[in-house]
Design a protein that fits this description.
By secondary structure, the chain is an alpha+beta fold. It folds into 3 domains: about 60 residues, Winged helix-like DNA-binding domain superfamily/Winged helix DNA-binding domain (Arc Repressor Mutant, subunit A); about 300 residues, no CATH class; about 60 residues, Nucleic acid-binding proteins (OB fold (Dihydrolipoamide Acetyltransferase, E2P), Beta Barrel), CATH 2.40.50.140. A hairpin with a 5-residue loop joins strand 14 and strand 15. It is elongated.
């Protein structure tokens, strides 16, 4: 038991013993008393200590004491007398603080080690570095809170970027700044301090997509026999500004030609180009521009109409009055292409252009057959979102006859390719879709919105089956090999058959489709989120925006509205009862770009 009025150590605090019993009553600095077990305290000085206020700082020869004792062992009493020439409660406490500091001495009151010089110097250097780091950290946080980062902060902010891009789940910086640990909040913080531009689009990287075109060598086009169709005009019809035309159509009497960029002529089954395309899955179409799954040189050589004469893999077919496909042929060709926008092609259709009107007339039976088989046409709003010189441009895509013409031609080619592969037992990914879960053909916007929710997503399968929404008994994607890996794979299989080579077997096709599908899911998500991002940037930069919304459903006491000129879905509260297909004037209320959300209010 320590004596009454002795100085003891309780945890790291000084205490005075005020009474003894089964437990020891001690007085702590601050005046409060506490009953503790004897083993919970350690004697520093037997006293008498009348008041803890006596423990004032002491002047002594601390450095000299350490130098004399370096490397040796001592006690608290001997150390105190050597450093202060007296052993009192005040000097004992001062000596113990030196030990507790842990630089020159360490241990217990009964056994204190005087550290060696090299250990002391290392400890001092480590503590100095730690103190400098703490000062630097504090200064950094002050700069962040003031939104004035310094050039040297760029590397440190990479930690926040990793969270903003969903590559980590925690950021010490974000936590210190008081943000919840989410990618959206990390995005918000980076914009606030000026590390990211306020319009920066993180979503492709957040989805794990590689940015930048592949940098791979592209081989020369092989010498091989091709059917010369340059006497026919082939029309490559696409959106204005399209940079990768990979399909075209031409009229040859009553024969319809659907030409497709012959990508498999340059990208073989076992090439680095094929592996890169498979890893990417598809082109990434962003409002800022295109990230290609293949080197841009492939598009320059094979894009239809980008050269005076283009090589193509061409499907020739006739359409019977009942809409069936007949006389299907597949040829390697040379073609001459005229590039048109949908708007220009529509004008020519209106002006009774013989070739385009002839193609449209031949496809009427195919349209009727698809419709009879349950093909669903959903005229939901679509827009083109582009970013040019930092300005967001949103342009509605009108429903034009030229779009229907191109769609039908591509579907014909897809059905023709599927039939050829089935007939010749060529393994390919068939595009299938089960019939919808109920629902009826839709004519208004609300009904089309509801109808779309009845359909399951299209699946790629080695087993042929119907594609319900297209109204086709058999279909594969075969007209976008510059843009989608699955189309390229179909072309590779067809070309192997044409060349008399062994195509990939079912297991090989299945493995490749599976790998590419994972990548293409990320691409589609990146595109969807990027389009939403730039629409919100547009609304943020145009706070006075007003437009029309159409009620298409109800969800948890809110009306679901579609805003046609933005092709955007939103939920909105109303004090009045609303009806399906009711048109409302709405205005933007609040925009949160990092969280990809916007709210609207009803006007009037």
């Amino acid at each position: 038991m320590p004596p009454l009025d002795s100085l003891v150590l309780y945890k790291v605090r000084p205490a005075r013993v005020v009474s003894l019993g089964e437990k020891v009553e001690i007085e702590l600095d601050g005046g409060q008393n506490k009953r503790v077990r004897p083993k919970d305290i350690e004697l520093l000085h037997p006293g008498p200590l009348r008041n803890l206020s006596e423990l004032v700082p002491q002047e002594g020869e601390l450095s000299e004491a350490w130098e004399l004792l370096e490397g040796a062992e001592t006690t608290l009493k001997d150390l105190t007398e050597l450093a202060f020439d007296a052993f009192t409660p005040a000097t004992a406490w001062a000596a113990w603080q030196l030990v507790a500091e842990g630089v020159t001495f360490s241990g217990t009151p009964a056994s204190i080690q005087a550290r060696t010089r090299d250990v002391v110097e290392r400890e001092r250097a480590e503590r100095a570095a730690k103190e400098a780091a703490e000062r630097d950290w504090k200064a950094f946080l002050e700069r962040m809170q003031a939104a004035r980062p310094a050039p040297e902060d760029v590397d440190r902010l990479g930690e926040v970027e990793r969270l903003a891009l969903a590559r980590s789940e925690h950021s010490r910086i974000l936590e210190a700044l008081g943000y919840q640990q989410t990618p959206g909040n990390a995005h918000r913080a980076l914009v606030k301090v000026g590390h990211w531009d306020r319009s920066y689009n993180p979503h492709p990287l957040r989805c794990g997509i590689t940015l930048g075109d592949p940098d791979l060598q592209v081989p020369e086009l092989p010498e091989e026999a091709r059917l010369d169709l340059t006497h026919l005009t082939a029309y490559a019809i696409d959106d204005e500004g399209s940079e990768d035309p990979d399909d075209a159509l031409a009229l040859d009497g009553d024969l319809i030609w659907v030409h497709v960029a012959d990508v498999a002529a340059l990208v073989s089954h076992q090439s680095d180009l094929e592996r890169e395309a498979r890893a990417r899955g598809a082109n990434l179409y962003l409002p800022e521009g295109i990230i290609n799954m293949l080197p841009s040189r492939v598009t320059e050589r094979l894009g239809l109409g980008l050269q005076a004469i283009s090589p193509a893999l061409s499907f020739g077919l006739r359409c019977t009055p009942d809409g069936d496909l007949a006389d299907i042929q597949l040829r390697r060709t040379w073609i001459r292409v005229e590039r048109l926008t949908y708007a220009t092609a529509d004008e020519r259709l209106t002006a009774a252009d013989p070739a385009l009107r002839g193609l449209a007339a031949l496809m009427e039976g195919f349209q009727r057959r698809r419709k009879a088989n349950g093909a669903t046409r959903l005229d939901l709003p679509e827009v083109s979102v582009r970013v040019r010189a930092g300005e967001v441009q949103i342009r509605p895509l009108p429903r034009l006859r030229s779009r229907d013409l191109v769609t039908d031609a591509m579907l014909m080619a897809g059905e023709a390719a599927a039939r050829l592969c089935l007939e010749h037992a060529i393994p390919i990914p068939f595009a299938t879709q089960v019939p919808p879960d109920g629902g009826e053909e839709a004519s208004d916007l609300a009904a089309m919105y509801a109808r779309r929710r009845c359909f399951k997503p299209t699946k790629l399968s080695l087993t042929p089956d119907v594609h319900a929404s297209l109204g086709l008994p058999l279909y594969t994607r075969a007209t976008s090999p510059l843009r989608r890996y699955s189309d390229l794979l179909v072309h590779q299989q067809l070309r192997a058959w044409l060349d008399g080579r062994e195509p990939l077997d079912q297991q090989q096709v299945l493995e490749r489709v599976g790998e590419a599908d994972v990548a293409s899911v990320a691409v589609r998500r990146g595109e969807r989120m990027s389009n939403q991002h730039w629409k919100l940037v547009f609304l943020r930069d145009n706070p006075g925006w007003k437009g029309e919304g159409v009620v298409v459903g109800f969800d948890d006491r809110k009306a679901v509205i579609l805003i046609p000129e933005l092709a955007m879905e939103a939920r909105i509260r109303s004090r009045e009862e609303l009806a399906l297909n009711q048109r409302l004037r709405v205005a933007v209320n609040e925009v949160d770009v990092p969280d990809l959300t916007a709210s609207f209010r009803i006007l009037g």
